[in-house]
Amino acid sequence: MTPPRAELTLPSPDATCALAARLAPRLSPGDVLLMSGGIGAGKTHFARCLIQSLQETPEDVPSPTFTLVQVYDTPAGELWHADLYRLSVPDQCVELGLADAFETAICLVEWPDRLQDLTPSTALSLSFDAGSADESRQLSLDWSDPRWDGLVAELLA
């Protein structure tokens, strides 16, 4: 059976941010978002908007490209933002504590291909690509866990 898929066009960075803000309050510890796409595709912008929308007082949200993981305390629970671009083997993900965080925190993972066998089967995958217009993005959402069915339908409504 083919897993569910939804596709949408985000016409601007503001639209990308608005989608992240609509998704954020629906997330809870144990939810994992796998964000893929080339450099500059909008992964970090999406993550930044999502994180800031969960913070009581929005703060600066740096890209974790060099720190690998940034951890935030939010009213929704602990949130981990990971950028795995610089990792070469999945064991490094375990060393960072990601495998445990997948169970206990909301996790946003950029460059999820680095996880390989550690990829949670319950995750929601978001694939970002440049759209046909300047600053627009094409977003594909893929999932297999029924937990995401209603949530994605709400986001697209």
UniProtKB/TrEMBL annotation:
UniProtKB keywords: ATP-binding, Cytoplasm, Magnesium, Metal-binding, Nucleotide-binding, tRNA processing
Protein's UniProt keywords contain Iron-sulfur: no
UniProt-recorded Gene Ontology molecular function terms: ATP binding; metal ion binding
Gene Ontology BP terms: tRNA threonylcarbamoyladenosine modification
Compartment list: Cytoplasm
Record's GO cellular component terms: cytoplasm
Cited InterPro entries: P-loop_NTPase (IPR027417), T6A_TsaE (IPR003442)
NCBIfam families assigned to the protein according to its UniProt record, in alphabetical order: T6A_YjeE
Family: Belongs to the TsaE family.
PANTHER family reported in the protein's UniProt record: TRNA THREONYLCARBAMOYLADENOSINE BIOSYNTHESIS PROTEIN TSAE
Protein name: tRNA threonylcarbamoyladenosine biosynthesis protein TsaE
